[in-house]
Design a protein that fits this description.
The protein has 129 residues and is mainly alpha-helical. Helices cover 78% and strands 0% of the residues. Helix 2 runs antiparallel to helix 5. Bound molecules: heme C (HEC). This is Cytochrome C.
Length: 129
């Protein structure tokens, strides 16, 4: 059954790296997102609406970027979906901040953070967080 073993090796190699070429990926933006996501919820809890809205702007831009990026790649519809979900959550958080409902905004901000991880789990397996 050596052939079967060989086939399954090939198959698992293919699923382990759905996208192996990120040379055109904007890592600087990702690092900006990482910094921003750390301030987002604390800014909201501190009821610092201006800072929180600035954070939201950066994060919304990040999710727009990942949505566009993965839309151009074949077979990554789930990453596009994940990005849209992130964008939607940021829009919701913004609306809550606008209404000074900081409690709802903080909950939404926490949920948005898990969106980063759900994409990394699939598309960045070596550095999943
Ligand atoms: C739809 C997919 C997707 C979403 C959403 C996403 N990322 Fe990423 N991220 C990636 C991929 C793919 C890489 C790996 C790029 C590479 O290997 O060059 C990456 C890399 C990173 C890195 C490492 C950059 C480096 O120095 O190499 C950080 C930090 C990061 N992301 C943070 C975030 C944060 C924070 C969020 C959410 C606000 C987020 N990402 C949302 C796909 C995503």
């Amino acid at each position: 059954m050596a052939w079967a073993f060989g086939m399954s090796l090939l198959a698992s190699a293919a699923t382990a790296t759905p996208l192996s070429d990120y040379r055109d990926y904007d890592d600087d933006l990702m690092r900006d997102l990482e910094r921003t996501v750390k301030f987002f919820e604390p800014d909201i809890t501190a009821q610092n609406a201006d800072a929180a809205l600035e954070d939201a702007e950066v994060l919304a831009g990040g999710f727009r970027y990942t949505e566009d990026y993965f839309r151009r790649k074949p077979g990554t519809e789930d990453a596009v979906e994940i990005s849209r979900k992130g964008g939607k959550l940021i829009a919701e958080a913004r609306a809550s901040i606008g209404k000074a409902d900081f409690e709802a905004a903080a909950a939404t901000a926490r949920e948005a953070t898990t969106v980063c991880k759900s994409c990394h789990d699939i598309y960045k397996p070596r550095l999943a967080r």
